[in-house]
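Tutorial handout. Part one gives the primary structure; part two gives the three-dimensional structure as tokens.
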Amino acid sequence: MIMKKNNIQLSDHFTYRKLLRFTLPSIAMMIFTSIYGVVDGFFVSNFVGKTPFAAVNFIYPFLMVLGAFGFMLGTGGSALISKTMGEGKTEKAHSLFSMVVCVSLALGIVLAILGAVCIRPVATLLGAEGAMLDQCVLYGRIILIAIPAFMLQQEFQSFFIMAEKPQLGLYITVSAGITNMVLDALFMAVFKWGVAGAAIATAISQVIGGVLPILYFWRPNTSRLKFIRPSFDGKALLRICANGSSELMSNVSMSLVNMLYNMQLMKYAGENGVAAYGVLMYVSMIFIAVFIGYTIGTAPVISYHYGAGNHDELKGLFKKSLIITGTFSVCMLLLGEVLAKPLSILFVGYDADLLSLTLRGFAIFSFSFLFSGFAIYGSGFFTALNNGLISAAISFLRTLVFQIAAILILPIFWQIDGIWISIVVAEVMAVLVTVLFWIGNKKRYHY
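Part two.
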């Protein structure tokens, strides 16, 4: 008998089909979350102009640095909570879940205030000036109002999966995504509110994505998780932060590296370079969301079977995941090459020089999709095994060390092409490191 999607449990044996069915909602959730920035970019570029479009791309990485703390608490928390459930400690799991949500809300408020104070000096430090600087600050301060909700939305993507309600998480994320699209069209195309309209639309959609899950878990529900009166467990919180530090490191590093890319592009190609990179990042966010979504979707399953000592199931999950990730990687490369022109025209078709620069970047950049999925899965796999140190090492090397080295060195030899090539080189190096960690820890974790 074929099980319905909402009856798939963490303790099940996972075939390829069941694994894909279980992770599909988390993949879709990540894609729709990525669409926030993409939709903003499309409307800003086509209805407001090239300079505001460059401004949004310029400040977006800083905003993602703050939102990344939600990823840390979500992935680190879900790994420990899933492991606790696998050990049969249900009440303890509920207490940990409640504590993480409360801590996230408080931290989000603090980060929103700090971000609002720091955003202008940060944008200035990165090289924004004049009208572009003003647009950066305007967009960023509006988005910061919703940062607490955005952090909650990020972590609930993991919690819905471990609660065995991935489809409900998908419905909420889709609702938030559609809200963003509709409001973007209304605020920019109809009301002509410009960059402020884009920020307001995104902030409202993030509030929807962060508040609706709280309402669900607050009421009596049929999931494996529920809110109870939390008891603060400092030791557990430190474990959660340490274990989720790889996801925090990954997101913070990517944001910092994106800022460095923007600085290099301003040097070699001016605003056109920043705008072209923005298009590549929008497409990349959607493609990479497939890998991140799959990794988030499988993490609670891996944590559960690791906690329960089911070594055979762990081996099967690892092998199947490598094959699935490899298949996704080839598909992403082909889609990147095939869709390069129509996607570039969609965003910057109004400027011939900018379009040409974007197409050139696409032709090189797409090869990074062939490798990035393995390193992303590798980091998430070790997080699920509650080994935050190895997970953080992979993320740190992939998103910071290799990227910075490549972006500083390669443009010296190949100018603007060196910037696009550096992304591919960094991903190749990250895969090599990931494979070494897999080989070195196979006997320890029995996968």
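Part three, for discussion. The longest helix spans residues 234-308. The chain has one domain: 10-445.
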